[in-house]
Amino acid sequence: MRNAFTVDLEDWYQGLEMGPERWGGFEDRLRVGTERLLQLLESSGARATFFVLGAAAERHPQLVREIHDRGHEIGTHGYGHHFVYRLGADGFRDDLRRSLDILGSLVGEQIRGHRAPFFSIVEGSEWAFDVLAECGLAYDSSVFPVRNYRYGMPRAPRWVHRLDNGLTEFPLSTLRMLNRNIPACGGAYFRLLPYILTRRCIGRLNRVQRPAVFYIHPWELDPDQPRIDLPLRVGLTHYWNLGGTQKRLERLLREFEFATMAETLGLQYG
Question: Would strands 168-169 and 161-162 be described as parallel, antiparallel, or unpaired?
Answer without folding.
Answer: antiparallel
